[in-house]
User: What shape does this take?
Amino acid sequence: MAITKETQIAKIEVVGEYKAVQIATDTVIKEDGVELSRSRHRKVVHPDQDITGEDAEVQSVCNAVWTQAVRDAWTAFQAEQAQGV
Amino acid sequence: MAYIGVQPADAYTSFAVQHFTTSATTSYTLDNPVANENEIALFINNVRQQPGSSYAYTASGTTLTLSAATSASDTMYCVFIGKAVQTVTPNLNPVTIDSGTVATFNRTSSFGDIISIQKDGTEAGSIGAPQASVLSIQSTGDRSGMQFGSTNVYPRKNNALSDNTVDLGQGSYRWQDLYLGGNIYLGGTGSANALDDYEEGTHQPTVTGDGGGTATLDSGSNTLAYTKIGRTVHLTGTIQVTSVSGCSGNMRMTLPFTCLANSNGTGYHGVMVPTHSVNAAGDLGVAFQLEPNAASGLFFGINDNSGTSAQLTTGYYRITLTYQTN
Assistant: This one.
């Protein structure tokens, strides 16, 4: 009987004007190859973030959609966000 | 071509012969019923007799009647020539073929039922073709069924397509899991009624200063749980910020999904955040404001009769937040 744990990229979604990349990662527990449980973890990366630690597939998507125009637009948008409650 | 039922038994047909034990009588019983005397050839003492009521004998059913009584010394036999006697062993698996289509039911010209399924002569249901290249399966009368279209499976009732009258399952007899790749439409059939997503999971937020730097979270209080229903995200949990050294500005916390762009009813909205062991430095409390188009929000200190102040303080932040995503 072998219990294994593996992570799988379940979804990579490109969202919105500033091409935020939403990543859903599933943690799958298996017994002898049969799935026992699956849990999901979410994170989002934006054009100004360091993605060197991300999965290669995620990096590929980010690099494809984060054009310089998108990066510049995101930087400008961030600068406008200094607004209180 | 396959057969339904037992294989035709012509090749195994044989004619039956019946030998009689004769006595002084005109009445005998046949082993097999006949329609009339012409269906048997009757021989007495090896002489063939002429059939007919005016002649040597008549027969009907299993009754053989001679025009004159035989005697016990006569020999008499008959050959059944009208009805062959077959011995057929029913095939327990009568519809069998090695390959290809096993059976074809072809209704020409009009559309409608092709196979009627009955119990004791009463129809229980049918399989048919209500349109070209369309299959339907349905119970008889005012009962349900299904029709298989090009990209839809339609409900049927009372021998016709039916809208909003047929349930899938029942309180005591439910289907188990339902796996969908598209939407569920509840309360209507428009896009506003489409539930396109449901997801449960966790998010380990990153807390930074919007002026720079990264805060440190306690490893035991660094994960938030979310439930996404359609475009609505519910986020809950507690984070403990243990260090903000090197950070400047307001604390910015990441979210599991981007916040919907700013427009009427969406965008910049915030919630008050209960805290524990947080030095609010004279503020009335702490608020968390979402950043439209981003998967993050900022913590602010709420002032009395004034604006907001930077919130960059260690402690526990108890998050219960609902927002809309793309």
Remarks:
- Chain B touches chain A at residues 199-204, 210, 226, 254-258, 261, 268, 270, 287, 289, 291, 293-296, 298, 300, 302, 307-308, 325-326 (CB under 8 Å).
- Chain B is about 0% helix and 45% strand.
- The first strand of chain B starts at residue 17 and ends at 20.
